[in-house]
Amino acid sequence: MSSLWKGLLLAALQVALACTLGAKLLYDRATRPREWIQVATYDPDLPIRGRYLNFSLQLPTEGFTRRENPQSYTSPFSPDRCDLSMRSGVLTAVANPDGEFWANVRLVGDKPIAIVATNTPFFVPEHAIVPIPRVDHVELWIEATLPHKGPPRPIRLAVKKDGVLTPLSLN
User: Fold this and answer.
1) Which one of 16, 36, 40, 80 is least enclosed by Cβ atoms within 10 Å?
2) How far is CA 16 from CA 4, 10, 21, in A?
3) Residue 10: enclosing H or E segment and its boundaries?
């Protein structure tokens, strides 16, 4: 077999691998549940170039307990890790000391909310106008596919203002 044929065979194999990944993601999007999730953005530190936002999920909690005397700079809730699970149709941070995600639980009003670090990037077009929550007085939400394992996979971005969720057209 000549070098040209070996190169073409390798290229075909790489295209087939990329297509199977794409097919898996499309299959998950069609069959796995979707959920609107409130998110908080933070400054990402990824070596890739481009315009993107990185999200932490803001979720209701289950199973976290309040510590009696928390040390400085630690969460007043225990444990610090969790898994994501659907509970009554709502994505929830479920306490698990060996969980997949880190969670920082805090009280908002009188109920605990978990800020879950999932490193969920959302890529936006270069000239898209993305609202800034603190400046525009809105909440950011993502619609995401919920895979069996791993972080939610974002589909689209929305803002919530005065209780109305409005998906953004970022094209």
Assistant:
1) 16
2) 18, 10, 9
3) helix 3-31
